[in-house]
Amino acid sequence: QVQLQESGPGLVKSSQTLSLTCTVSGGSITTRGYYWSWIRQPPGKGLEWMGGVHYEDSHAYSPSLKSRTSFSRDTSKNQFSLQLSSVTPEDTAVYYCARARIGVDDYDYWGQGTQVTVSS
Questions:
Q1: What is the pLDDT of residue 5?
Q2: What is the Cα Rg of the chain in Å?
Q3: Is residue 34 a contact partner of residue 24, using CB atoms and an 8 Å limit?
Q4: In the prediction, which pLDDT does 56 show?
């Protein structure tokens, strides 16, 4: 059973950089064929895909967030991370990490989500 757990600050000030980490257990982030995503849901809105990291460490970005987003991973800790720069209150959301099999338009495992609030 794969488990994902997000961690990071719950409150960030405007203009700062938000950093979140997803710790994976029960499966390796380097296992062939999988893609590890970041997804967020602002209050009252739908899910927004932000991008993520492939098993071979290539990265994909949402066009709308690409200029402010970076991804990384630490294979020794089985973690992957998100950094979102120059945040504004519009970045307030529940942030999720999730796993998908490449080629399948669905996520099979999700973290529980972490609330991030950006103060003005």
A1: 98
A2: 13
A3: no
A4: 94
What pLDDT is stored for residue 104 in this prediction?
84
How far apart are the C-alpha atoms of 39 and 52, rounded to whole Å? 9
Q: What single-letter DSSP state applies at residue 103?
A: T
* Token duo for residue 43: 């209050």
CA 3 to chain centre: 14
pLDDT, averaged in runs of 10, over the chain (120 residues): 96 97 97 96 97 94 97 97 98 97 90 97
| Cα distance between residue 84 and residue 53, in whole Å | 15
User: How far apart (Å, rounded) are the C-alpha atoms in residues 115 and 94?
Assistant: 4
Output b/e per residue, 42-57; b: 16+ Cβ within 10 A.
eeeeeeebbbbbbbee
83-100 core/surface letters (b: 16 or more CB in 10 A; e: else): ebeebeeebbbbbbbbbb
